[in-house]
Amino acid sequence: MSEHLRFKDHYNEARIFFRRAIIVAALIVALVIVLIARLYTLQVVEYETYVTQSDRNRVQVQPLPPTRGLIYGRRGELLAENRPSYTLSIVKEQVGSLESSLRLLRQLVDISDDELEDFHKRLKRPKRRRRPYEPIPLRYLLGEEEIAKIAVNEYRLKGVVVEAQLVRHYPQQELFAHNVGYVGRINERELKSLTPEEYALYNGTDSIGKIGLEKQYERLLLGNVGYQQVETNARGRVLRVLERTDPTPGQNLQLFLDAQLQRKAYAALGGRRGAVVAMEIETGGVLAMVSAPSYDPNLFVTGISYKNYRALNESPDLPLFNRAIQGGYPPGSTLKPMLALGGLEANIIDEHYSVRDPGFYQLEGEERKYRDWKKRGHGHRIALKQAVAQSCDVYYYDLAFRMGIDRMHEFGDKFGLGERTGVDIPSERSGLWPSRKWKRGVRGLPWFPGDSLNMGIGQGFVLTTPLQLASMTATLASKGVHRQPRLVKRVGEQELPDKASKVVEASEKNWSLVMESMEEVVHGQRGTAKSIARKANFRMAGKTGTAQVVGIAQDAEYDSEALAERQRDHALFVGYAPADNPKIAVAVIVENGEKSSLAAKVAREIFDEYLLRGQFDNVEVGR
Amino acid sequence: MVQQDFQRRMPEASRDLRKPMGVWQRIHIDVPLLLGLLALTAFGLIVLYSASGETKFYIQRQTVFISLGYVAMFTAAQFKMSFLQRWSPWFYLGGVGLLALVLIMGTGAKGAQRWLSIGGFRFQPSEVIKLAVPMMVASYLGVRVLPPSFKHIVVSLMIVGLPTVLILEQPDLGTSLLIAASGLIGLFFAGLRWRYILGAGLLALMSAWPMWQFVLRDYQKQRILTMFNPEADKLGAGWNIIQSKTAIGSGGVYGKGWMNGTQSQLNFLPESHTDFIIAVLAEEFGLLGVLLLLLIYLFILGRGLLIAARAQSSFNRILAGCITFTFFVYIFVNIGMVTGLLPVVGVPLPLVSHGGTALVTLLTGFGLLMAISTERRKVSI
Predict the structure, then answer these.
(1) Positions of A marked active-site
(2) Are residues A326 and A358 in the same domain?
(3) Prediction ipTM score
């Protein structure tokens, strides 16, 4: 029936409405009966149950926080533990006058303004976020004397409680700050980012992993919260536990990191700024990862003071900066073995191909001289082995020019340059492995042949992190097998698998050529790192490098001497040992170290420590 | 065959045949409804005094809001229905516009964006829309041929759906639920055919299983399960329910006496003066107290439906029906939630819970009911 032919029938509409209203009335009555039935059940049938629950004694639900998982080093050294500590808290619902209680407390124990402010912030948290009768922490790490003072005055301090809590502690102090990281108190922003389910997990826990492994493995380390329903008397004393679900402790982590090796590496840097990464070639496990200078992570656990934080944050030495995974350095000559392999595989050079090195290189039709680091040059007939051993720049200018950016980019890509390694700690940087496309996109310029020359000696646009260099070296040492760098070896009792893949295909002959030339760097007559070969009873392979400092901020605050120091070249070394059966790969960078032998010496100390003392000392730490 | 002109007029036609108006009708007050509301708000104040820990602050505020509400009610009762019907679309569009504005520049309370402040004055546009949606639905359907055709049903659904979605975005599940209910019941009152109702029901049932099985992810399922079983989350939402059930249950038949409820007085009960106020009432006045409250509610609801049934146009009927039924949804969802029957969504107990804007809106709604009930009858011989 067409719409137009229908007329409003007021009588009919009123009738329809009346019928519908009756139905609605019936529905309302039915639902009210449901409500009454429910109330009857609660108030008459189950009256006894609820009346005992409410009468005299009060029922509370208390969270039972889980114990955070421990973190062990490769040989069972404890890197992160939980220590009992006493916290002064206030139960808002029980305290009479908050003002006067706080005043009295401040007379008894030392409470700073910062702590007071934090307390008020916690107090103001929205009601929905807080359970009634939840103690709100005011002061952490109470001393024995302070606990005694509060105990004596307990009668005057209604609603003030001293709770024993487990607080995270890092016994190795600054040694592992950059990789283990630290926990700190949950802040407002972190709270907001939690889903309700996650939020429930943090009942009774007030710390959360902030950086490093503590952050990456937060969920595993945290465990699961338990709870108990308790009856308390009017003063909040627990009379009876009605129901209890135990918390599940967090999982323990065992790392590849070796405290002994880490300590050695840190000491070997001798107080200089720099980074060291050592990897176990067989597994990709990171044995040592040092970024110097470092800081004591324990400062952050219960809240760092503003003064201390400022000192760390504003230090020109950047102690909070994790150089090993965030520092982008020009790799300098440490790239040369990799590029040599690329040239060999592309048939641009062979074992016998040689160049003449007058101390500089010129592009055809260009005035500009690209200098060798050795002013007079390396002589007439420099072939592959010596070009690596002596780090001849001109040989590589020539190689880079003939190989061209595209082939260089493609080959370096296989070694993971310009990409995050995917190591299991957060905030890793990707570095920069330039390409024609990148330059046009970012700089808006075409790729010039001169750019290729700079790239051939690891300068120019190239930026790498020490971890990338270590990973590249490990891939070279295992003839093209890449294993993703990782810190955690075992979660609980479960060994984590390694992620290995063959990323570089090259002929056996070319591999040996490159590896022999790297050995020549250390053990050859004219090798740039021959100083470290002394008294070694194993053979090493490696490559030195120096990198020009780029883009240093010319801050007027530095005195000129310090500024001059900060503009010196960085010293680099990458290498592996033993040369015939590689077990460990190392990348070292000493900021403004000038002489690459300085970095090579650090590597030698790590090789010694690992190969002569520590290698077979694996200890399994169970739960 | 008619020989004679016959008189087309009734004798004494100059007299107004309509019933003479009483004084209450002149000032547009429906007396039974007013008495019911007065009883309810008075009872509410008594409970609130106890629930807010015997402080005068909430009582004073609530009294101010109740007075404001009655003024708003009285004002609303003076409107001519034809005027309201004509202006409903503009009222509705304004409300939707404000809702959109809230999403863009609203300020939040407890992590949700609901408030709009204009020149230091803050208000919730969702309150405006609570009246605008039933008015819009009633005015749209009121002039159509009823029962509504498929096209009219679709348009009505869009009228209801737009503000519902906007409020869900805030996010405010409770209010969007109320809005949706207030609009959909309008369709039902308009005579929505049973085949559509059954069809929609079947469709919902049939899509539920594949949604659950294939579309929802595990964590979403978990969330839904927690919502319907809040006691699984003992420390969060479940804590409130455990406490409110204890409070209600321990009240028994006769209650612990006014201001003697241990659960509520000792701060165990969260939100005791707002959404969970019925628990205080149940603890202190027992089952009898709750029954008295329900009785008052039922009286008001009955009066509302009666006014709707006796109204003179489809617009009036549908609007009155919507307002009355929405009032009931408030009651049912709130009590169901506090007693652990329904998931916890933030819906206050109407005219009892502390909270200004909702109170004013509800009483304004009742003002419209009074306008409908006291409208002058057209000539009926």
Answers:
(1) 333
(2) yes
(3) 0.89
